């Protein structure tokens, strides 16, 4: 693994974990009422497109980062529906 690849993976990790506090806050409070559904849907669409792009060009950092963000985004969407009934 090259230094550039390590940089990409490190940057992806840092970027991805920025979503973790929000996921944990929603889970802890059992509330996602202030989370914008439109923002979540656009985020999921964009991240899915980035993930597809990463898979097509076989870029590990893009695949890794967007997979993590997609999982957390889908968790937030799930919590949005589960806790706001």
Describe this structure in words.
The chain is mainly α and 85 residues long. 82% of the residues lie in helices and 0% in strands. It has four helices and no strands. The longest helix is centred in the last third of the chain and has 24 residues, at 60-83.
In short:
By secondary structure, the protein is mainly alpha-helical. It contains four helices and no strands. The longest helix is centred in the last third of the chain and has 24 residues, at 60-83.
What are its keywords?
Monooxygenase, 85 residues
CATH topology, anyone?
Answer: Monooxygenase
The major β-sheet equals: none
Q: What is the CA–CA distance across the termini?
A: 47 Å
Report the top-level CATH class.
Answer: Mainly Alpha
Helix-strand sequence = HHHH
Report the uncertain regions: none
| Helical content (DSSP H or I, runs of 4+) | over 70%
Q: What is the 3D form?
A: elongated
Total number of β-strand segments? 0
Radius of gyration: 14 Å
Structural class: mainly alpha
Report the CATH architecture. Up-down Bundle
Count of domains: 1
User: How many alpha or pi helices?
Assistant: 4
Mean pLDDT comes to 94
Beta content comes to: under 5%
